[in-house]
Amino acid sequence: MEVNIADSWKKQLGDEFKKPYFGELVSFVKNEYSSTNCYPKGKEIFAAFDHCSFENVKVVIIGQDPYHGVGQAHGLCFSVNEGIAMPPSLINIFKEIETDLQRPFPSHGSLIRWAEQGVLLLNATLTVRAHQAGSHQGKGWEVFTDSVIQTISNHREGVVFMLWGGYAKKKGAKINSAKHKILTSGHPSPLSANRGYWFGNKHFSKANEYLASIGKSKIDW
Questions:
Q1: Residues facing 182 on adjacent strands
Q2: CB-based burial of residue 119 (10 Å sphere; 0-12 exposed, 13-18 middle, 19+ buried)?
Q3: 58-88: per-residue pLDDT in tens?
Q4: Which N-terminal residues, if any, form the signal peptide (predicted)?
Q5: What is the mean pLDDT of residues 27-36?
Q6: Does 194 score more than 90 pLDDT?
Q7: SS3 for the chain, per residue?
Q8: How far apart are CA 174 and CA 186, in angstroms?
């Protein structure tokens, strides 16, 4: 089955696309996109992989599913295009960077520049119906993204995994901690952050310290 994903990932995940579950997933997604409004745009479903090659992955951030509001999702978890209002979780991410690294609060919410430095911004589910959070969960995307995480864990070394909240921690349970750096904290959503589970985790400086310690360039957050 031909999947429009960057070549570096196609080499790693080619067998996954041949499995029965993935064929069923593709049929489901095509039907959803033809019958109702879904996000992100079809050409952006695999954008996280297009902006960050397999060989360039330094950091993996795991989200749950895409934003479901108009114009928000564009294929990178937590990110929104320039000109789109920042969702609360993204605002809290930038607030943490502001205090952790003394970086000024950015003027927009696009994280493409992170991706192009080697940050894989991976949602567990890559599509969603408009205004229906979680509507494409349990259809096969989670199996696929588990395989992505497992492939990185098995075939790369020295990758920082940022696992925010209970869902992401479960998603990353099989990462080889002997080969990689795993950072965990509460989720940046207001519900978690305002209860003291997000702010002060210093994940961005910790990631850069680790990358520098193994001879890799830091991320310009």
A1: 161
A2: buried
A3: 999 999 999 999 999 999 999 999 999 999 9
A4: none
A5: 97
A6: no
A7: CCCCCCHHHHHHHCCHHHCHHHHHHHHHHHHHHHHCCEECCHHHCCHHHHCCCHHHCCEEEEECCCCCCCCCCCCCCCCCCCCCCCCHHHHHHHHHHHHHHCCCCCCCCCCHHHHCCCEEEEECCCCEECCECCCCCCCCHHHHHHHHHHHHHHHCCCCEEEEEHHHHHHHCCCCCCCCCEEEEECCCCHHHHCCCCCCCCCHHHHHHHHHHHCCCCCCCC
A8: 19
Alpha carbon distance, N-terminus to C-terminus of the chain:
36
* Token digits of residue 16: 């996954």
Q: What is the pLDDT of residues 90-145, one digit of tens each?
A: 999 999 999 999 999 999 999 999 999 999 999 999 999 999 999 999 999 999 99
Catalytic residue among 7, 15, 50, 65: 65
100 is catalytic: no
Q: Provide the whole-model pTM.
A: 0.96
Name the burial class of residue 171, with classes exposed (0-12), middle (13-18) and buried (19+) by CB atoms within 10 angstroms of its CB: buried
User: Distance of CA 212 to CAs 54, 59, 120, Å?
Assistant: 20, 13, 18
